[in-house]
Amino acid sequence: MHTVAIADVPELEVRAWRNWVKAELLQGSRPVILYGTRTSETRVALTMVLQRGDGGLDLIRTSVDPTTGYFALSEVAIAMHAFERELHEQFALRLTAHPWLKPLRYEGGTQADMARYPYYKLEGKEVHEVAVGPIHAGVIEPGAFRFMCHGETVHHLEIQLGYQHRGVEALLGRGDPRRHTPLVETIAGDTSVAHAWAHCAALEALAGVALPSEGEIARALMLELERIAMHLAGLTGLAADIGFLQGAATYGRLRTTAINTSMRLCGSRFGRGAIRPGGAGVGLDDGARDAVRDACALLRDHLVAIDALFLEARSVAHRLRGVGRVNRAMATQLGLVGFAARASGVDLDQRRPARGAYAAVPLARTLETTGDCWARARLRITEIAASLGWIEAALAHLAPMPADLAIGALAPATIAIAIAEGWRGEVVHVLETDAAGGLARHKVQDPSLRNWLGLAIAVRDNEISDFPICNKSFDLSYCGHDL
Amino acid sequence: MTFKLLTLRVRQDQGEQFIKDLRAARPAGFRGLPVIDTTPCATGCDACVTACPTAAITAAPLALDLGACVFCGECARVCPAHKIAMTTEVAMASSARAELVVHEGPARRPPIDVAAAIRKAFGRSLKLRQVSAGGCNACELELNALANVNFDAQRHGIEWVASPRHADGLVLTGPLTKNMQDAVQLAWDAMPDPKFLVAVGACAISGGLYRDAPGLARDFLAKVGPLVFVPGCPPHPLTVAQALLDVMGR
Ligand code: SF4
Ligand code: SF4
To answer: pLDDT tens digits for A260-281?
Structure first.
């Protein structure tokens, strides 16, 4: 959570800004987000947010004429590629020497370009391409994949997204931001709680309202339930994809237990309605607490059995070990976030250093090092256990929520940045107000934006038949990316 | 030894049907079908109308469109007369769009009327192709859940298929994005007759929270009218299961 008056954010002329950011990136500063805000017909304000090792954020702004633009930062740091592609798409910002200005989402009137897009090509005898999507062979969201292969080996995967683009940011820019939570809950509907929390935290900061610790803990409880449920959903899919049916059936069944617990607490299996500006719609009477305790006990009990089966089955290890590997250096270079980064040994988790609910109740650290599908699966198993442990410890601190706090006028000319560690990774909401305290910009970033390129890199030199496993092991959101 | 015992227990737990009757089950705590009682509104009160994020409510007389409702419960929370209440009822799908409107008075189960020919063709086995066109993955997860061991819709012959060529029905989620319109049309055209369309979730039925979004193109829905509308955001798997059983006449 970071709130700062726009006047206090250092602002540099665009070349100096670029050099400053470049120097920071070369020294290993971690980019969180770079986004644009239109300030006039001919100017766009660019805000770069970097994160220090202690979790603190550094902001730096510039104002740029989109037709002049600047010399692309993706040239120095690949992790910047998605931000700059977005700037190019949203503001027609000129980015000299950007290696790949492919549209992220095909916003506006650019649908026709989708079919005409020139994919990368691999040429040579016996080279072949496989095109999949946008509709896939399952009940999942759409996206297109183009594999360039030689025999069974994938040399490159190019991912084409944008099919899910609805225009989330356009909607968030209209009307009263206090009333946007139901919409925010559907930006990536499997990450409703993390998005709602980040959105509400940013609003509360702008309104100068601080939630009491019961409220923070209630929100974290819903977030950890969401994490458990979605990690179980991921393991279900992974087990199904490798034909480990006992795992698919059992993890799937246990996910039901987790989401029904969310439903018991807030009326929705996806935690919708659990978080609202200034409060939380979580019922925490004694009965609810007992339901949470019982669900945790059942999950622990059954997970011991199924996790042992999964982790000890030679067939499972054989299919997942060494497949879809992203090493630590590559994960850092690409700017991966969330469990995909942690599976590659990057110790990045917005719940640490601990603040708020996670300072009140500590959370076990989770990390893997091998960066393959096996590591991502194992990590999800460990993270479920860590979240269960957190919830069990938090039970003692759970108390019925006080009445919702009123969200009054928002501080004028201020930027609030809130980051929630959702199950996939960091969910970022940035709210900017104008001089009158009205909303000037609501920028959303789902962790999927940062991680899709990780999947493309992970499948290189793997067999094309292992793609479904790689894809499932990253478990990225299409709608969260496409907005 | 312990390992084997644990293994056995996992197996045993799955030895019986989790939900014995998909029609009788009631999900504890689910924020489902809203009902409106006949208490008069305070003069000039429009608290629910303004609170609703999807303009699902019209006043005087009060009516609530389940096709737009996202079941957030705001209307019930703000009503000073406690006229609107959210119930745990899951049965609310209908074959007629207009029947999705809830009026004052006791809850009424909207009807699902489908032609005898449909029942004859699909009454024993229903193969469905799901397509998401801007869906947020909650509708999709709930549809997937229909096939898990808890709901086990396969017991009634309901199954998801990979190819539209194998499908009897197209189950559409999401508000229909411009970028998906060609793909949706292609999938529909690839399906053999007889075939039908099911609109699942507020997004598909009315645009839901995205009704004013710039990235939509909903012509397909106007052209191919859905056979069944399944309200929810997302609908509970039981809502979907009951609607499909009604289509099949089971
Ligand atoms: S429950 Fe439905 S009708 Fe009521 S406010 Fe929410 S969306 Fe509107
Ligand atoms: S109806 Fe609701 S749950 Fe379904 S896709 Fe739309 S926003 Fe998501």
So the answer is: 999 999 999 999 999 999 987 8
CB contact under 8 A, A305 and B140: no
Residue A469 has pLDDT above 50, yes or no: yes
Cis omega (within 30 of 0) on the bond before B192?
no
Per residue in A372-391, pLDDT (tens digit) is 999 999 999 999 999 999 99
Q: How many domains is chain A partitioned into structurally? A: 2
Say which residue, A416 or A27, is predicted with more confidence: A416
- Chain B nearest CA to A196, separation (Å): 13
**CATH number of the domain within which A227 lies:** 1.10.645.10
- Residue A154 falls inside a structural domain: no
Polymer length of chain B: 250
What DSSP line would sit under A256-288, residue for residue?
HHHHHHHHHHHS-TT-TTSEETTEE----SHHH
ipTM: 0.94
Is residue A49 a contact partner of residue A34, using CB atoms and an 8 Å limit?
yes
Question: Packing angle between helix A467-474 and helix A373-394, nearest 10 degrees?
Answer: 30
Domain around A360:
168-481
Atom of ligand 1 nearest to the CA of B34: 1
A117, part of any domain = no
| Nearest chain B alpha carbon to A160 | B179
Across the interface, whether the CB atoms of A164 and B180 are under 8 A apart is answered: yes
> Among B57, B65, B103, B104, which is best to mutate for testing ligand 1, by the most ligand atoms less than 8 A from CB?
B57
Q: How far, CA to CA in Å, does A94 sit from each of A41, A87, A399? A: 15, 9, 53
Residues A74 and A207 reside in one and the same domain: no
Report yes or no: B200 and B137 within 8 Å, Cβ to Cβ: no
| Amino acid code (one letter) for A449 | L
Supply the pLDDT for residue B250: 86
Burial of A124 (0-12, 13-18, 19+ CB in 10 A): exposed
B208 within ligand 2 shell (Cβ under 6 A):
yes
Number of A to B CB contacts under 8 A, please give it.
182
Report residue A345 as tokens: 């040994």
**Spans of all domains in chain B:** 116-248
- Residue A122 in any domain: the answer is no
Nearest to B210 among A166, A268, A308 (CB): A166
Alpha carbon distance B220, B213 (integer Å): 17
The tens digit of pLDDT for each residue in A414-466 reads 999 999 999 999 999 999 999 999 999 999 999 999 999 999 999 999 999 99
Closest atom of ligand 1 to B233 CA is: 7
Pair A173, A76 in one domain: no
Identify from B52, B137, B171, B211 which residue to disrupt to test chain A contact, counting A C-beta atoms within 10 A and taking the largest count.
Answer: B137
Cβ pair B148:A179 closer than 8 A: no
Residue A141 domain-assigned (yes or no): no
**Among candidates B11, B31, B175 on the partner chain, residue whose Cβ is nearest the Cβ of A166:** B175
Q: How many CB atoms lie within 10 A of CB B14?
A: 13
d(CA B6, CA A435): 63
Phi-psi region of B65 (alpha: psi -120 to 50; beta: other; left: phi over 0): beta
Q: B180 and A170: CB-CB below 8 Å?
A: no
- pLDDT for B7 equals 59
A197-223: buried (b, 16+ CB within 10 Å) or exposed (e) per residue?
A: bbbbbbbbbbbebebeebbbbbbbbbb
pLDDT digits (tens, 9 = 90+) for B149-203: 999 999 999 999 999 999 999 999 999 999 999 999 999 999 999 999 999 999 9
Among the four given CATH numbers 1.20.1340.10, 3.40.50.12280, 2.40.70.10, 3.30.565.10, the one describing domain B116-248: 3.40.50.12280
Q: Look at residue B1 in the predicted model and tell me its pLDDT.
A: 41
Which residues are bridge partners to A57 per DSSP? A51
